[in-house]
Structure formats: C-alpha cells, structure tokens
Amino acid sequence: MDGQIQSTRQRPILAILTYADEKRIFRGNQENFIDLIRAGEERGVLVYVMTTADFKLRGKQAIGYKYRASTKSWKRELLPLPNVIYNRIPYRKFEALPEVQQVIQTCMRHREVKFFNPSFFNKWTLFEWLNKSRRTKPYIPETKRLSSSDDIDKLLQAYPSLYLKPIRGKAGKGIMKVSRTEGKSKPRQFELSIQDKTESHISRYPSVTQLWSQVRELVGSKDYIVQQGIVLSSYKRRPFDLRVLVQKNYRGAWTITGIGARLAGKLSITTHVPRGGSIDNPRKLLTHAFGQAESKRIIRSAKRAALIIAKHVESSSGQTLGEMSMDLGVDSDGHIWLFEVNSKPMKFDEPPIRQKSLENLIRYSIFLSQKNGL
Ligand SMILES: Nc1ncnc2c1ncn2[C@@H]1O[C@H](COP(=O)(O)OP(=O)(O)O)[C@@H](O)[C@H]1O
Ligand SMILES: [Mg+2]
C-alpha cells in the first residue's frame, strides 16, 4: 500500500481544466478528455479533469474527476495536486466569467503547478503581434479593425474581395465576404456574402455606402476586423485551406504534429466542416492544383511558416503555450497566408494526427512536470 502511494506521488499528474454548469457534469469534448486519460495511462501519467465549479488547488490536494471505463462514468474525488494543468475551457463566454477568471489567475500564479494555454486569442491582437515581425509579416493578409465604411472602401480599392470577421469569432460564425464586381458592360457593383449554417447568401449594392448600412446592422455591437480576401487554391471548384497542428514535444520544442485540409462546401465562403466543408488530404489537393514537385514545396513552406508563427505567437503572448492550430490558405501562386491561430485546437479527425497529438500532450506534460521554477 505504502509503495503504491509512493508511486502515485512520483508519477506526473496532469489535470485538464474545463467549465462546469448545471447542464452537464462538465463542458467540453468528453471523448477528447477520455482519449487523453488513456494516452496518459499508457505512459504512466495520471490524467484527470478539474472544473471551474468545484475548483480547489490548495495544500496537497485538488478536486478532480477520474474516468471509469467499466461503467462509463466519472467519479469526483480528492486527488493529489497536479504538476501540470491543461486549459480546455471550451468557450470565450465561459472564460470571460469573473469566477472563471479567478480560477485562471490562481492557476497562473500557483508556484508548484505549471499551467499551459491560459486563454483564447483574439484575431486583432494576433494580427498586431504578427505584423510587427519581418519573419511573420509575409504570411499576414492586410488587416484593419472595422469601424466605418471608409475601411471597406479603401481596402476594396486595393483588393477585389475582403473578409469581415468577428475578433472573437469561431467556426465561421458571423463571417462575411465583400467583393466588387465589374463586368465590361455592367456598372460596378458590390456584393455581400453572408455565411449561414451551411450556405452563403449574396446581396448586391450599387455603392459601398449602401452595402455598409447592411453590414453595420449585421455587425451590431461586435468587434470586427476587415481583411484582404485571399483567392484560395481550389479542387473541383471548391476552395480549400490547410489546418496545421503545432505542439511542443518531450523537450518543450515546437513541432508540427500534422497537416490536414478542409474543402469548402459548394455554397460556402468558409471551409468549416459543420458549414458543409469536408476533410481531405492536403497532398492530394495541392498536387491536383500545383503538380507533385510544387505540392511538396508548399507543404514544406507551410510547415516552416507554422513553426515561425508559433514561436512568434508564444513570445508575443508572454504565455506558456503547449499547442495551437492554424488555418493557412494557399493562393494560386502557392503563397502561404495565415487566417487564424487557435489556442483551443479542435480535435483532428485524421487518425495519425489524432494519435500523435495525444502523445505530444502527454510528453510535453512530463517535460513541464520535470522543469524547475515557473
Ligand atoms: N482573408 C481571407 N481570405 C480568404 N478566405 C478567408 C479569409 N479569412 C478567412 N477565410 C476563410 O474563412 C475560414 C474561417 O476564417 P477564420 O479566420 O479561421 O475564422 P473562424 O474563427 O470563424 O474559424 C478560413 O478557414 C478560410 O477558409
Ligand atoms: Mg478558423
């Protein structure tokens, strides 16, 4: 018995932090948590779930939830203090709550516990960070905060299409696309595409001012950015982009876990799967668009870009980060563009990426648990 307690104390302990409310025992993707618990078991790491609702991190104990595979249920217990906490609070609206902020602060300040990925990123801050560096700037489409029709007007003079995106957006919600069209005999027109569930709807306006009154109504009080539209490479007339998972490894160094591709739905302005998009193989799509040799080069440069961006995001944020995912676009010249960086990567459904991502999280947690100091 004694020996057992000893070994429990010595093996690294990883807690997954999430939000809990009356709706469910806790929020977030439980399947994801269970997979990570299993991956931990394989490497001798105890993994459990902690919630912001019954959060306790005092003395030598914490309240956590262990998973029982035999009954497919969770058991709340007093558990030994974790060495490492992985933040998976699933929505910005939860993260913003004062009681959740307090938990996050406690985790960040704790002397013995290492806490990684403390917050969501916001799209505007990201672009400010990445625009400052000579190394990351080439990947950033021109971006401004949206405040008046002037912002649209000016950018439309430089680019034929623009993307309007909520600063705290996710999964394509609230995204709009604006384009100017000019036929030979037709007068200039402005088009507004709005992404609905799985389709986009187009409306047309004779002037930017008229388009703006519609945009303003849709934007409401939310903060938006307006961004140079990139003409994405496409496959059978469906544009695609690349989803890259970047994680730290067992030595705490950034590595590429994998690259997936998302093909836009036929009627969509984004590539999100819930909006009619589908998963595909990046090499196949790129080879179809650019040929074999060029496709290899593009994948290599996408990986290089993702690593440069990850390092820069980490140093600008001043936070401890263990993983992030990126949406990268490839234009018709094969140039790589960054659309966003996500600090709460969604589950990658490609099995090899999935497997490796769990392993990396466990190995990085072991690394953190052995690291001295903050
Ligand atoms: N500037 C842009 N040019 C072309 N396509 C874009 C642009 N910005 C976004 N998109 C498309 O919309 C998708 C969603 O944009 P993103 O910034 O990732 O927002 P979200 O947080 O909603 O996922 C991208 O994956 C890409 O397909
Ligand atoms: Mg995205």
Automatic annotation (TrEMBL):
Source taxon at top rank: Bacteria
Pfam families assigned to the protein according to its UniProt record, in alphabetical order: ATPgrasp_YheCD
InterPro entries: YheC/D (IPR026838)
Gene3D superfamilies documented for this protein: ATP-grasp fold, B domain (3.30.470.20)
Name of protein: YheC/YheD family protein
UniProt organism field: Paenibacillus filicis
